[in-house]
Amino acid sequence: MRALLDVPGPIDHVHQSVVLPVPADTTLAGITDRVARLLRKHDLLRARLVRDVVGQWVLEVPGKDAARPIVSRVDTETGLDAQAEAARLAPADGVMLRAVWLDRGPKTEGALLLVAHHLVVDAVSWRVIAEDLTGDGAPTTSFRRWARLLAARAEAPDVVADLDHWTALLRTPNRCSATAPSARATPSTPRACSPGPCPPPTCSPPTPAA
């Protein structure tokens, strides 16, 4: 998130999107209700991107009552336009998620396009979001708690012990062959991701739901 916020220039429309199947008997009111519940469950989907008193970017999360789902209906495939919806995202106003329902009629399965700002979703988030939309989602850790746990983990002795290694790695031209001391494990053990352009090995970073 910090890397994205440090990008020079506007980032209002940096997004990810997904298209999910929708049962034939779905209604606009039903989809809107599900999206509203999604916003109430996942705080970041309601967040506003603002600057604090010292000018730093922060995400301000209003209460659950502030959830305002934005769902539109189209009846043609061309209406599922992720780029057009991304252009309507407005992080400063708390518009982090937009949805478009493709209604193919009462007897035909439809589709739901979800477009979310990249500040509030990643590739793993979509699985959680899809499960929550169908009502099958399990309880998840809030982003606030996840961020605090991550910060605490960064200060753990075994992590701090690797600091010199990772600092040196950032100055190493060929970073693909380097492995953290704590990650020199068997092939069955996930290894830490190497920063930089080279393809990382199997990675398992902690990721919040949304």
UniProtKB/TrEMBL annotation:
Transmembrane segments: none
Stretches for region Disordered: 178-210
UniProt feature, compositional bias: Pro residues: 196-210
One Pfam family this sequence matches: Condensation
InterPro entries: CAT-like_dom_sf, Condensation_dom
Biased composition (Low complexity): 178-195
Condensation domain: residues covered: 27-172
Stored PANTHER family: ENZYME, PUTATIVE (JCVI)-RELATED, PTHR45398
Protein name: Condensation domain-containing protein
